[in-house]
Amino acid sequence: MTPGRGQARQLVRVDVDGPVGRIVLNRPEKLNALSRALLTELIDAVDELNRDDQLKVVVVTGAGRAFCAGFDLVDFAESDAAWPPQRVADLGRSATDALERMRAVTIAEIRGHCVGGGVVLASACDLRYAAAGTRFAIPEIALGIPLTWGGVPRLVRELGPARTRELVMTGEPFDAIAAERWGFLNRVVPQGELAAAVGAVVETLRGRPRLALRATKQQVAIAADQLASTRHADADSALIAAATRDPESRASTRAYLEPRR
Known about the structure:
Elements: E1 2-3, E2 12-17, E3 20-25, H1 36-50, E4 57-62, H2 73-77, H3 85-100, E5 105-110, E6 113-115, H4 117-123, E7 127-131, E8 135-137, H5 151-159, H6 161-170, E9 174-175, H7 176-181, E10 187-189, H8 194-206, H9 210-227, H10 236-245, H11 247-257
Parallel strand pairs: 3-4, 4-5, 5-7, 6-8, 7-10
Antiparallel strand pairs: 1-2, 2-3, 8-9
């Protein structure tokens, strides 16, 4: 494996092996929670890989024992005049959009925990495989903020409107078996076999013509956008701004953050 060109990055690793790339969220001590710095590096990593015309497939995963614990709310709470909540929301949307628009086919390799913004990142990938025992949750509303980054339309595409309402509004966790049954995951594999299962899919795709892969990805993207478009997701920043002014929402955020400070 050869390292990516973005040597300055620390929170996102990039590896390339011929037509296969790999993006690793690299903040394992925080279960790969999405800070502003990590999201910025993710955008840079996607830009780097998009310049490689030989790539056919990119695996997206997390270092350590989790895929992604979602957005780092402490980082969000400590945003300042240079990083108001609206700008933070725009950054997350930009990172998710960049991942969805990669030219190569993207595969989310999910283990451990996949929470909030991590679910949205996974939903932006073309294919999703998870280890048995993976736990999912979308707790944003309970934490005083709406689900943004284009997460709602993406989940509507994969889960349907009713299931999206239920999971986002209640914040109830769900397991990999349920996620597969509802159509969010392509496959659940036993613990310890996830890397091999994803590797088998990668080997199949690397033998397919690049032109046909990209054309199929584009065709599906057009059809998905007709089902539930993310084109209005730029209004998400206004939702975040409204939540920061709403007393009830602010109280929910404080109740979550205080024990963690």
